[in-house]
Every structure is written in structure tokens, then in C-alpha cells.
Amino acid sequence: MLASAPGAVQAQSRDIQSLVRSINGPATYSIGKGPSVPIKPGMRIPAGCTIQSGVGTTLDLFLGRGGGVLRVKEGTIVRLDKLTLSDTGSDVLSETQITLVRGEILGAVNRLPEGATYEVRTPEGLAGVRGARFKIQVPGNINVLDGTLVYVRNNQAHVIKGPGEFSTGLPQLVRVLLPAEIPPLARQFIGMDASAQTAQRVRPPPPQESPLSPVVGS
Hints:
Layout: E1 12-15, E2 17-24, E3 27-31, E4 37-38, E5 44-46, E6 49-53, E7 58-62, E8 69-72, E9 77-87, E10 92-109, E11 117-121, E12 125-138, E13 142-153, E14 156-161, E15 164-166, E16 174-176, H1 182-187, H2 196-201
Parallel strand pairs: 10-11
Antiparallel strand pairs: 1-9, 2-5, 2-7, 3-4, 3-6, 6-9, 7-8, 8-10, 9-10, 10-12, 11-12, 12-13, 13-14, 13-15, 15-16
């Protein structure tokens, strides 16, 4: 509606690439039915790709402004479905869409401005993040260290506030973590600072060049 209003500025959206901040162990990415490419530190990985991590692997990706840091653990298959930035003239809004097929990911996402989105799809539901440090396992539970995550499953929305957990094995599905459970969870996020200061020290992901990804080309 804003774009159709007289004098409104059309938001300029562009695809970006993720940036490999660090990797410990073997991992590959592929686009569509293309070959598997070994992942190395400093590599740029486009949207539309599927990442597979091997035994003992920890992989940290910087997803750009709004996307924060994504940590991929061993034995994980995850797709970076969409990574975009839109310049509205008054702000830059991000759109991040990820699909966790199996395995475990951790995310560190700063508080998002109105209009920005961050979503993680799982085989059973969809998680929406406004700003949080979270862990999602497939199969398994969802943990939120701090911030808020909303998980929609079977058409029901479950609000998980940190420190909290969502589990299908719980009578009420969502619970507050016990004090003894918080430090072990917090240690898993060491090195995942998504603050503006850290982002300034990391080379930002460049605009994505077509046709690297099926999202923007063949």
C-alpha cells in the first residue's frame, strides 16, 4: 500500500551472500543439483544453497545486517532460502529465510526493526525471530537463551521467551529453563556476537551476483 501511495518510494531489494566467518571440520554447499563445493573460511555462500556439515564440524556464517550469525553444527542439512536487504529510504530491512532439514543450528540475531523478518522452517513448523539467541534441533527441541521466538506448529503459535524451551515432550510444550541449565546453553553461543561493533569488523556480504542461486537465476 505504501508503494502505491502518491510520492511513495519503492523499496529497492537486493539479494546478498552469506560470509563464512569460521569453520572447524568438513562441510559442503550445493546449488540445486549442482556439485558439492567444500566450504572454506572467508568464502561467500549464496542464497538458494544447501549446506551439509560433516562429523565434528562447527560452521559460523555471517548473514549480513539483520541476519546476524548462524552456527551450523555437525551432521546438519540446512538451506539458505532467502537473504535480502531492502532500502526503504529511511531504513534498510532484511529478510532471512532458512530451512533446517535435520541437525542443529544456533542463531544470534539482534532486535529487528519493524518490517524486517527472520524465519526458520522445520519439518514440523515455522519459527519467527524478532531478536534472540536460539538453538533449534531437528529432531529435537527449541531453546531460547534470551529474546523471543514464536514457533507455529499445527496452526498453533507458541511464544518462547528466554531462557526457555519448546518440547513436544512437555505437558505445556513451553517451559522456563532451570538456573542450572542456563550456563551450559550460554556456552554454546561463545563467539557468536551479532552486535553492531562485531558486524563492523567483519567484511559485509556483497550483493549476490546472478546466476549464482536459483533464487535469482538459472
